[in-house]
Amino acid sequence: MKKILLATVVLALFTTAASAQRGHNAIQNHKIERGFQSGQLTRGEKMKLHKQNDRYSRALRLAMIQTHYRRAADLGDAELDAAARAIDRLDALFRRADAAGVAADAASDPATLDAFRAAMDDDFDTAHGLAVVFEAARDANRAVDEGELDRAATLLAAVRELLGVLGLVMADADGGSGDDAEIDALVRERDDARAAKDFARADALRDELTARGIKLEDTPTGTIWHR
Question: Is residue 157 domain-shared with residue 208, that is, in the same domain?
Answer without folding.
Answer: no
